[in-house]
């Protein structure tokens, strides 16, 4: 199946694929990777939206050099009557074609976003876009769990630092208890960074077979973030850009919609404590 057929199928069904980028610890590369993946998908011709779900300290705008005019805080005022045409007014378009739904302008506004609003907003975005990429905050807040439950894929990101790996292992246990393990994959970002732990050790540490590798390239990544131009645009020939493009290619090749699989179950809200009580 070629790209045009995939685009055609995805558009015809009017339901996109939702991929969330999560991590146990901050600073491991969620924003960098999710933004560049979104741009890579848009460059391939897929209608792609990125939602900045780091509701307190979102920086997707920074990574794309966009000044947010409207944010998700504005959408929630209209959420009851929201339709996809209205939603389009809240999305800002990047030159790559990626549409952005920005995080609130102030951290305190994060608390006003309900999980029901999240559900409605994601549904409306998915009606009109081939891909919804979500850049989460770190950890397992109720917001993050509701995004993870709704997603088709959860990409859990870590680097080779001991603290990140230890917390990723713990987070994987919770993901298992929430029965989200099947759709979770691990990205080892900076997989060749200086560390006592090596990429080849990770399978044993995390007890997981499927790992994606993104290389360490501080010069390219940090410059790209600071000037607000994703490296898949500014440095398309770099190894790290190729790795991102390959990952994006796997996303549309494995698009679960095309295989008719789609599960969007809702968990009774019990909080993390309830999850573990139930799974004992
Ligand atoms: N592959 C990489 N190589 C080098 N530096 C990276 C890489 N990925 C991320 N970084 C650096 O790590 C920092 C944190 O990345 P970011 O995407 O903001 O993490 P998160 O969103 O998980 O908090 C960035 O400032 C970036 O420069
Ligand atoms: Mg981030």
Structure description:
It is built from 13 helices and eight strands. It is α/β, with parallel strands linked by helices and 280 residues long. It has one domain (3-257): P-loop containing nucleotide triphosphate hydrolases (Rossmann fold, 3-Layer(aba) Sandwich). The chain has an eight-stranded mixed beta sheet with strand order 3-4-2-5-1-6-7-8, with helices on both faces. 42% of the residues are buried. It binds adenosine-5'-diphosphate and magnesium ion (MG). The site of magnesium ion has 5 residues, from helix 2.
Brief digest:
This protein has 280 residues and is of the alpha/beta class.
Features:
single chain, 280 residues, alpha/beta, Rossmann fold, 8-stranded mixed sheet, binds adenosine-5'-diphosphate, binds magnesium ion, ATP binding, P-loop NTPase, AAA_dom, ParA/MinD_ATPase
């Amino acid at each position: 199946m070629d790209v045009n057929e995939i685009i055609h199928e995805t558009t015809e069904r009017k339901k996109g694929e939702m991929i969330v980028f999560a991590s146990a610890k901050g600073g491991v590369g969620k924003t960098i990777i999710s933004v560049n993946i979104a741009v890579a998908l848009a460059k391939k011709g897929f209608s792609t939206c990125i939602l900045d779900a780091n509701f307190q300290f979102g920086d997707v705008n920074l990574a794309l050099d966009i000044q947010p005019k409207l944010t998700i805080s504005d959408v929630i005022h209209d959420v009851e009557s929201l339709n996809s045409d209205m939603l389009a007014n809240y999305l800002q378009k990047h030159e790559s074609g990626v549409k952005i739904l920005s995080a609130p302008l102030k951290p305190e506004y994060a608390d006003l976003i309900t999980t029901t609003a999240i559900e409605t907003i994601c549904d409306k975005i998915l009606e009109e876009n081939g891909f919804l990429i979500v850049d989460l905050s770190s950890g397992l807040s109720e917001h993050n769990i509701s995004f993870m439950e709704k997603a088709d894929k959860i990409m859990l990101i870590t680097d080779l630092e001991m603290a990140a790996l230890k917390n990723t292992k713990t987070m994987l246990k919770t993901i298992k208890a929430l029965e989200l393990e099947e759709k979770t994959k691990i990205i080892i970002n900076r997989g060749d960074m200086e560390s006592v732990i090596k990429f080849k050790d990770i399978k044993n540490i995390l007890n997981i077979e499927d790992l994606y590798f993104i290389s360490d390239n501080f010069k390219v990544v940090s410059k790209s973030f600071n000037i607000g131009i994703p490296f898949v645009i500014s440095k398309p020939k770099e190894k790290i850009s190729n790795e991102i493009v390959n990952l994006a290619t796997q996303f549309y090749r494995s698009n679960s919609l095309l295989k008719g699989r789609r599960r969007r179950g809702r968990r009774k809200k019990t909080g993390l404590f309830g999850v573990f009580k139930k799974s004992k």
